[in-house]
Write a structure and sequence with these properties.
Length: about 90
Amino acid sequence: MMYLPADWKTANVTPIFKKGNKGLPENYRPISLTSQCSKLLEAMVRDGLTEFLEANCTITANSMDSGLVYPVCLTSCHFLPAALRAAQSAGI
């Protein structure tokens, strides 16, 4: 099991104003500011998993939804655990 330092898992949540009355909380959206190391690790895992799934014909370019960074199938709660086990058994 991999250990992540607490600082990498901590995020500072900052409210960003959307529109409307600035006095109403619902007119703000939360932005999580995380460590650069955490973002780098997340990108490496995402890229490695996406490469593995593309190489094994699990996802294709058509799996991408409107140019989103994450393939839609990766967000499925049913699909991701099996994909992670397959990547781990393949040594990724």
